[in-house]
Amino acid sequence: MEIFLGAILFVMGTFFGSFFTLAVYRIPLKKDITHERSFCPTCNHKLGALDLVPVWSYLFLQGKCRYCGEKIRIRYFLLEILSGSVFLMMYLMLNQHGDFFTMNILEFAILFVFQYITLVLVAGIDKEYRTINSSILLFGFCCQMVYTVYLYVVRNVNIYRYIIYAILFVLVFLLNWKVSKNYLVQIMLLMSYILLAVGVIAMPFVAILSIIILGILKWLGMRKNKYQTWQQMPVGFAIGISTIVYKIVESFTLQF
Ligand SMILES: [Zn+2]
Fold first, then answer.
1. Burial (Cβ within 10 Å: 0-12, 13-18, ≥19) of residue 63
2. Is residue 139 packed enough to be buried (19+ CB in 10 Å), middle (13-18) or exposed (0-12)?
3. Whole-angstrom Cα distance, residue 121 to residue 132?
C-alpha cells in the first residue's frame, strides 16, 4: 500500500514537471497553457497521447521527436524526474511523521505545492529568458495570504511578521510595476516573496547555495562562452532552486 501510494505520487510529480516545462515555455510568450495541445518546437507536429507521458516517453523515444527526429532537450526529462522526486519526498516526509492526514502536515504539504509551483516557474522562466515573471510571484503571494488568514483565524497564530513582509512585497511589486522593471528590482521582488514564504531564517542557506549554483553555471558555461558577465547570469534561477532545496531540507527536520 505504501509503495503503491508513493508510486502514484511520483507519477503525479512527473506530470507536474511536464506541465512546468510547457508553462515555462508558454507563459512569457503569453500563450494558452491549458487548452492548446503540445507540439514539437522544431517541426510543429502536434504530439500524440503517447508522446505526452512524462519520463517514459523520453526513454521510449530515446530523446528524439517521433516525427522529425530532432533531439529533445534533456532538461525536460530532468525536471520531470525532479518533480517526481520532490513529490515522493513530500510523501515520505508525511509518512515519517505518522498519520498521513494529520492537519498540520497536510497544511504544510498544500502550502509546499503552491510554493513549489511558484518557485519552479519563476526559476525556469528566468533561466530561459532572464526575467522574473511578476504575475507568477503575485499568484504565490495570494496563496501565501490565504494561508496567513487561515493561520490567524483558525490557528490563532501571531501573524505580525507576515504582515510586515506582505507590505514589503506589495511596495516592491508597485515599484517593479510602475517605476522600473530593472533586473535588480525583479530580484528584490523575488526576495521579498521568499521572505514571506520561508522566513528570514532561510536567507543564509539560500544565499550560500545560490552563489554555489551560480558558480557551477559559470563553470559549465565556460566552454560554450556563456555567462561571461554578470548581466547574463540567471540569478533568479539560482535563488529559486536554492529555496526549493531549503524547503525540502526543512520538511525533513520539522517537528509537527
Ligand atoms: Zn519534431
1. middle
2. middle
3. 9
Length of the chain: 256
DSSP state of 73: P
Res 181: pLDDT: 86
Q: Quote the pLDDT of residue 256.
A: 57
Neighbours of ion ligand 1 (CB under 5 A): 40, 42-43, 65, 67-68, 70
- Distance of CA 47 from the midpoint of ligand 1 (Å): 9
Q: What pTM was estimated for this model as a whole? A: 0.88
pLDDT in tens, 74-92: 888 888 998 998 888 878 8
Instruction: Tell me the CA–centroid distance for residue 74 and ligand 1, in Å.
Output: 15
C-alpha 68 to ligand 1 mean position (Å): 4
| CA-based nearest residue to 241, from 199, 205, 192 | 205
Distance 42 CA to ligand 1 centre (A): 5
> What is the 8-class DSSP label of residue 231?
G
How far does the centroid of ligand 1 lie from the alpha carbon of residue 26, in Å? 17
Distance 62 CA to ligand 1 centre (A): 13
What stretches in the chain show pLDDT beneath 50? none
Residues 83 and 78: their CA atoms lie apart, in Å, by 9
How big is the CA angle at 119 (ends 145 and 196), to the nearest 5 degrees? 35
Ligand 1 centroid from CA 63, angstroms: 11
